[in-house]
Amino acid sequence: MASITIRNLDNEVKDLLRQLAAENDRSMEEQARVMIRAAVEGQLGSAGRIDQIEQTLRELASARGLAAPVTAGKIMPRGLSGKRILFIIGGGIAAYKALDLIRRLRERGAAVRVVMTSAAQEFVTTLSVGALSADHVFTELFDRNDEHDVGHIRLSREADLLVVAPATTDLMAKLANGHANDLASTVLIATDKPVLMAPAMNPRMWAHPATRRNRATLQKDGIAFVGPARGEMAESNEAGEGRMAEPLEIVAAIEALLDVGPKPLSGRKIIVTSGPTHEPIDPVRYIANRSSGKQGHAIAAALARLGADVYLVSGPVGIADPAGVQTIHVERAQEMRDAVEQLLPADAAVFVAAVADWRTENSADEKIKKVAGEGPPMLRMVENPDILAGVGHHSQRPGLVIGFAAETQDLLRNAEAKLRKKGADLIVANDVSQESGVGPSGVMGGDRNRVRIVSKAGVEEWPEMSKDEVAARLAALIAERLKTIVV
Ligand code: CTP
Asked: What is the rounded average pLDDT of the residues 8-34?
């Protein structure tokens, strides 16, 4: 199979490619691949041969009003301009990706200062890291001979965000348990700045109860995570969850944490429903379901990060209101319907709530008592309003209406039926059958999800990922769809 060495392209072309790659949030290699594919398919003017791609790149650049040649870094998106990132590199095979990450952060205008653990230095050298970060690389907790020694407190004080990549089992364990016996762990425990970890480890280490425990502790302590992803590991014959997130995914997470990411949804009003509903039987009893609200809340947060004005109508849940979102708390399906309809008009609505299909016809005003000899009370149930269907067929229907469907059988047929019946544009379908491996108890209340996006155009299958990742991807899809809907 042929391969392209970007290094061998002439500088002018390389700069243009770098510019296009950054604009599209792709690596240069991916950008080259996309363009070659497009050229071969004849989508880029007359270019149908590899040797015409240089010309095509030039044409594309001039069509965008970019002066060619473009000096590297000069017209990069500088969204991280002025931001200071303290980057801790842990000791793992994924440390090689740290070099690319430094380059991408600097391209976006960030100042990157690096701390390396001694294990990290077994994988990459301080020399290459220093060259890319254009700064001294910090490795020792106490180094009186080092003229650059600024001390761990200053290192964290002089940063806006700490990023740990790869976050190894050991680094996670140290921070989760409050250890501080080298520069990296001391800086992490001494900081009051946000911390982002990109774990990378062997799948068995990631799955170990100790690592699970440490991750849960760190999350509770407010540490943000990106990845790990599922896939092939560097060790041969090893696959599973544990691969470090790609540098561009880490950059996106950094931008989200620093709130400097692109805001394609600014000015858009979006309603999200989330959580279960509680249908009262009497003042102390109710009918409920196991929805945790995690997926709906994550979607609301992801939409807000892209700049949308988000109104989250939430049933009773045990999780916090997402930051940057207006949350309206309701209990019953009818209250949820009223709240949603009062929020219309909107640009989009996403119905994630697990709304109870039925409620008791009349809930008792007083607690129902056991009466000897009378047996259990008879509960007469009536159907609840279908909130999604109501909005899907409303005179003020938002331009984009998205529903969810949790199915245990005939996933696609049921999702397509819901699409039509409820007047939705998209149905996000979860396979919650036991065979799916995720299962109802896995999705409901769990942190992971595997979904398919069903629309009139067909079905798109997404791999299993965290609910936060599903949310980020769905928010990006919504932004893409709303681009074509003019209000
Ligand atoms: N939904 C809603 N109001 C209801 C019931 C469901 O808004 N009363 C929305 C959910 O938020 C979800 C979608 O409809 O987006 C599908 O919900 P689901 O419970 O799977 O659909 P049902 O119509 O209840 O069908 P089923 O018979 O499969 O339970």
From this structure: 72
